[in-house]
Hints:
The chain is of the alpha/beta class. The chain contains six helices and 16 strands. The strands form three sheets. Strands 4-3-7-1-2-6-5 form a seven-stranded antiparallel beta sheet. It has a seven-stranded mixed beta sheet with strand order 11-10-9-8-12-13-16, with helices on both faces.
Amino acid sequence: MGKHMITAEVVSQSRVSDDIYSLVLRAKEIAEEAVPGQFVSVYTKDPSRLLPRPISLCEINKNKGTIRLVYRVVGAGTQEFSNYRSGDRVQVMGPLGNGFQMDCREPVLIGGGIGIPPMLELAKELSAKGISKSNLHVILGYRDVAFLADEFKKIATIHITSDSGAVGFKGNVVDYARQENLLGDMLFACGPTPMLRAVKRYAYENDVPAQLSLEEHMACGIGACLACVCKTAEVDQHFKVNTRRVCKDGPVFYAEEVEL
């Protein structure tokens, strides 16, 4: 697989909550090669903003040649993206990074905040591999407003938590997993670092393997600038230090590979 720099066409854009948008792009070259857990770098049209914005792949439609990005507006770059409409064009590079390994039969997927969208494509791929809805558990952690939950419900058994208790269980995703003894034979997680740290501890305590998709600030997105390194248990053979590049070596790592 390679990465492609293309000019993608906006197929559609919609708002899924107050500050979260769903953007569908026609990007045939990227869609053909992408796998769950990877991301793309999206470039703004403002020449003063040189660095792209990394956004996880929420859905990959190889038949239609489209990718779906669900992102939160957090600054001027993503604010620009939120104004795109059907027919607009945007420069995108991808697919980037490494995706999830899906060798499991009873997976538990855990997504927190904007780490929820990449779990949707993973859930769809696992379902397509024959894992039944009853064996495919997804725990979704929100601040207060749920999004994408209805789409998960079509293919998985979902469990909702929120910090405020406005929706679902009041508390965090790992507290809920402990309460319900949700383990399976593989944990998959994407979300803020404190959540991933708790998932790693939960997996270790119960001797269950876990794959973690790390959220880090990135610059180049291709491993050249070293802006998104994370600490690792083993020495990187290329740089001879206990770090790895999240954008190139990740963003998905097995829990025992990284120190959080």
